[in-house]
Design brief:
It is built from seven helices and nine strands, in the order H-E-H-E-E-H-E-E-H-H-E-E-H-E-E-H. Strand 6 and strand 7 form a beta hairpin. The longest helix is centred in the first third of the chain and has 16 residues. The chain is globular, with a radius of gyration of 21 Å. The protein starts with a helix and ends with a helix.
């Protein structure tokens, strides 16, 4: 490869690292109160908006996983993760791009029951978008959709003509595509400290 090609490739990689895009941070912590604030203050200080946050238990008792989605440069994401790793009660933190994880979100839609009484259109819309009816009440129906943000947003737009009364979407949940086991990884970390 010529020097010109090497310089061009290096320039393209640097440009990609400096472009803002979606990053997924996966953080393993002890399950303790006050830790959410200690983690989120790191983003506030750096003026990085959290697009989505989810905290849940893991398969390891007493260990929680934070899944945080941010829009930033790779350099910013890596600096944030480095700082998060220094927080007491944080075991480890990872940075992933969307193609390095499996992820989903859940959305709930409340629509008037009358939308379903005027023919099959609304019911077909729900079925054809991989959603399901969760609750049927006299005045409203709750629809549930699991998928990626663009899929849940798309269904929202399709349901708007029926009169969406409420809409809520969860934070992203994600798993890396690696074969790493959380319990063995934490044990290895413990053995090195």
């Amino acid at each position: 490869m010529s020097n010109t090609n090497n310089v061009k490739l290096a320039s393209e990689l640097l440009e990609k690292d400096q472009e803002k895009r979606s990053f997924n941070l996966s953080i393993l912590t002890e399950n303790k109160s006050g830790l959410l604030n200690a983690v989120t203050i790191i983003f506030t200080r750096r003026k990085i908006n959290i697009e989505s946050i989810n905290v849940s238990e893991t398969e390891v008792e007493g260990v929680s996983r934070y899944t945080i989605v941010i829009e930033s440069t790779r350099e910013q994401a890596e600096k944030v993760v480095k700082r998060i790793r220094k927080v007491i009660d944080v075991f480890w933190a990872f940075v992933y791009e969307n193609d390095e994880i499996f992820y989903q979100e859940i959305a709930l839609y409340k629509v008037p029951t009358r939308a379903f009484l005027n023919g099959d259109n609304a019911e077909h819309l729900v079925r054809n978008n991989g959603a399901r009816i969760l609750v049927i009440e006299e005045d409203f129906i709750i629809i549930e959709k699991t998928g990626h943000q663009h899929e849940t947003r798309d269904l929202l737009e399709k349901l708007k003509p029926y009169g969406v009364l409420e809409f809520v979407r969860s934070g992203r949940i994600a798993m890396s595509k690696s074969t790493r086991r959380t319990d063995l990884f934490l044990q290895e970390l413990h053995n090195h400290h």
